[in-house]
Design goal:
Number of strands: 14
CATH class of the largest domain: Alpha Beta
Number of helices: 14
Radius of gyration: 21 Å
Strand order of the largest sheet: 11-8-5-4-3-2-1-12-13-14
Low-confidence stretches: 247-251
CATH topology of the largest domain: TIM Barrel
Shape: globular
């Protein structure tokens, strides 16, 4: 497992031990009270260590494989002053990182670069996941960032032709050549910020709302070469996800038109070729669920504990509300609170109560039974910490990595 995907290791860092310890201690006291038939302790005023922040629902693409299709270009939006108030308080209470991602294209948020500067003034680590269409906005943002921060462009193709078919930009002039021409400018603005090329692998038979989407296995190596030539620091590969009727985002290799072993063999061969391009200045990453798909063990990570503990430590803040997980963004039963969840004392109390309710009612073993969860291992680790009061939390601490993205 690469360090960027080692979420247990990240939560072992001394800098976030306080948040983890507060949560585990509360859950231990809660379990003891339930067993003794005593009143349950109130939820503490926790803030997550890391959040996904959807700045806007606006998007200038119409990607065929977009998992947030139903959210895009709705009228929901933030009042920036309220958003800043909530984030300022969260940062003062232990929030460590913000990933600007999802729901829409974050760089379309007004004064995007200045907003990234505001987050950095709060002492937060900042990551940006973008479609890459607004290069100047990324250059402006990069000027505020530092070596712990990163920018990742969702491109999913190696040729301009496939890019157009998959992403359907509203501006027909937008293509990979133009997007990649901005990478040297971003690196010139701030050479310490890591810039990545994200590639969602799609196989024939995959669909969105029963509409088939473009296969791109054949362009894996082409994309890796383009990424390296353009000056990206890495390319990352992950499998396509589909949203079920229940709301969960799942990997569904059973929908492949050919036998899944054949699909996996093709992916494996192309990714191995792409890895030949890696060197001291360029990395090739595979997501946890892609590795599990390749190993044939992906279904083992769908066995979840009843309680998803990560929903207390990593949340998704959007203009439509606060949700418990990126895999359930925008789903009503996964909603913790409103969009101003941490703005003031009253809202924070309601958020704490909403989180306690969701921890009790959201049965991850059922709701996420088909989700190949990136947080599966860390959830079981936290479950052990809670269930075994003999475990000394101080003894679970590891080294400080200065990486708080969850």
């Amino acid at each position: 497992m690469h360090a960027i995907h080692d979420f247990t290791g990240k939560l072992r860092q001394p800098a976030v031990a306080g948040a983890l310890g507060t949560y585990v201690q509360w859950r231990r006291e809660l379990e003891r009270a339930r067993e003794a038939g005593e009143p349950e302790p109130a939820a503490p005023d926790l803030v997550p260590v890391s959040i996904n922040l959807d700045l806007t629902t606006a998007c200038n693409y119409r990607c065929t494989h977009c998992i947030d299709w139903d959210i895009l270009n709705t009228k929901h939006k933030y009042r920036e002053e309220e958003l800043r108030e909530g984030l300022t308080w969260m940062a003062s209470q232990g929030l460590r990182s913000v990933i600007l991602i999802g729901g829409g294209e974050p760089t379309l948020f007004p004064r995007f670069g200045a907003f990234v500067g505001f987050l950095k003034e709060l002492g937060l680590q900042v990551a940006i996941v973008t479609n890459g269409s607004r290069g100047q906005a990324l250059v402006d943002a990069a000027g505020h960032m530092d070596a712990q921060d990163w920018i990742r462009l969702s491109l999913d193709s190696g040729s301009n032709e496939l890019f157009a078919e998959m992403h359907r930009p509203t501006d027909p002039r937008m293509n990979l050549d133009l997007i990649c021409s901005w990478i040297p400018k971003i690196k010139a603005a701030n050479p310490v910020v890591r810039v990545g090329f994200s590639y969602i692998i799609v196989w024939s038979g995959a669909s969105r709302d029963d509409e088939e989407i473009n296969e791109n296995i054949h362009e894996i190596v082409l994309a890796a070469g383009r990424a390296k030539d353009a000056g990206f620091d890495y390319i990352s590969f992950k499998p396509v996800l589909e949203r079920q009727e229940s709301g969960a985002e799942v990997m569904d290799p059973g929908k492949a038109e050919m036998e899944i072993q054949g699909v996996v063999a093709r992916i494996r061969a192309e990714v191995e070729k792409a890895k030949q391009l890696s060197d001291e200045g360029f990395d090739v990453y595979e997501s946890i669920n892609l590795r599990l798909l390749e190993e044939g063990s992906w279904s083992e990570f769908t066995r979840q504990p009843r309680t998803c503990h990560m929903q207390a430590l990593r949340q998704v803040l959007t203009p439509t509300g606060l949700f418990n997980c990126p895999a359930h963004r925008g789903v009503s039963k996964a909603r913790i609170a409103g969009a101003t969840a941490y703005r003031d004392a009253e809202a924070r109390r309601e958020t704490a109560d909403g989180l306690a309710d969701l921890l009790a009612t959201f049965d991850a073993s059922t709701e996420c039974a088909q989700v190949t969860c990136l947080y599966n291992s860390v959830n079981w680790w936290i479950e052990r910490l809670i269930r075994d009061p003999e475990v000394d939390l101080a003894g679970e601490l590891g080294e400080e990595r200065l990486d708080y993205f969850l």
